[in-house]
Amino acid sequence: MRTAAREESLHDEIARLAQALCVACARLHARGLLSGAEGNLSVRLSNGNLLITPSGVDKATMSPNSVISLNADGTLRHAAGTINDSARDTVHRPSSEVGLHVACYAARPDARAVIHAHPPVATGFATAGCPIPADVLPEVPVVIGPIALVPYARPGTPALAEAMQLFLADHEVFLLANHGVTVLGTSLSDAMLRMESVEQAARIVLVARLLGGEQRLSAAETSALFALRPSSATSVTFATTARRPYFAGVSPEGLT
Ligand SMILES: [Zn+2]
What we know:
There is one protein chain. A hairpin with a 3-residue loop joins β7 and β8 (180-185). It contains 8 helices and 8 strands, in the order αββββαβααβαββααα. It is globular. The protein has an 8-stranded mixed beta sheet, with helices on both faces. The longest helix is centred in the first third of the chain and has 29 residues, at 2-30. It is of the alpha+beta class. α1 runs parallel beside α6 and α3 packs across α6. It has 2 domains: 1-95, Class II aldolase/adducin N-terminal domain (L-fuculose-1-phosphate Aldolase); 109-246, Class II aldolase/adducin N-terminal domain (L-fuculose-1-phosphate Aldolase). Bound molecules: zinc ion (ZN). Zinc ion (ZN) binds at residues 116, 118, 155, 179-180.
């Protein structure tokens, strides 16, 4: 009976999270952070396995039955139809960024959700080689956390996960050069809100630069804001992020 109850609980968890993935996709699509079939979202189940969005599917109209079930190592459990076997759709394949998601979960036991998207303004910063500064908006150190600027690697290849490895231990947000943005969360809603906040911060900084440039917070105030985050590693990470040179020779002032 105990085993049956646990299986029923897992089934309920899968159904709930597959539906939540669809809701998150629709919300991010409605806010312009996902376009068409772009982007991919995953969640980690309590047993360590993963649910991930399918490849090539319009995120605005995605169905829970197209959500794909994976083992913890990214190998396929079900092509689709995680909710109802009779409705299983064997057409869909998992996102091409499975390797990126698996690498994130392997490096971060605390991560329960990963979202990869192409939000236009934050991706613009990544494409220009410009970091989103940590010392302008309080939301960045307190809510978003340090933002890594990851060198370019071709999407959908193991090289992308390898490029992120250096940053995975102490970041939840990754600007992927010439590509997009990846965020981690302790839940799907945590990751979704973080993705929205990153794009919002990028918009505000861009507008500030159009108006002559942002006013920076003091180092003391920024450190105090980072100290408000639950993670104790962020103050160290802030120093690393703040001192990282702007690559591609582009300074924040280059956008003004
Ligand atoms: Zn992408």
